Request: fold
Amino acid sequence: MVEAAGVAAAIGCLGVAVFQVALAAGAPLGRAAWGGAHERLPRHLRVASAAAAGVWVFAALIVLAAAGFEASPIPAAVAGWATWVLAAFLLVGAVMNLLSRSRLERIIWGPVALVLACLTAIVASGA
Reply:
């Protein structure tokens, strides 16, 4: 179960990373991110999305390492506690998205972050 949750969480994290890359590239998806104030993100938020994409890839590697996948470059000792930190951040992110002024953030990213938090917690509890 831990391995399956790890794979599902990593796929989810990579999906969010792809979304952030699209935002950074100027895709008109801004209503679903960063508070939803912009159709296309301004430069500073595009830079932030590019950075966020890297963070999401790192999160996927953490979860995979904690789930026991040795191909991840993250040391298992780090992955164990980092997965709990990630689960906590995802839970906070879920709450923030569910309280967002952006309808799209509430209906898309709130539930996504909540599911990722649960999957990550499953991995963390089994690590």
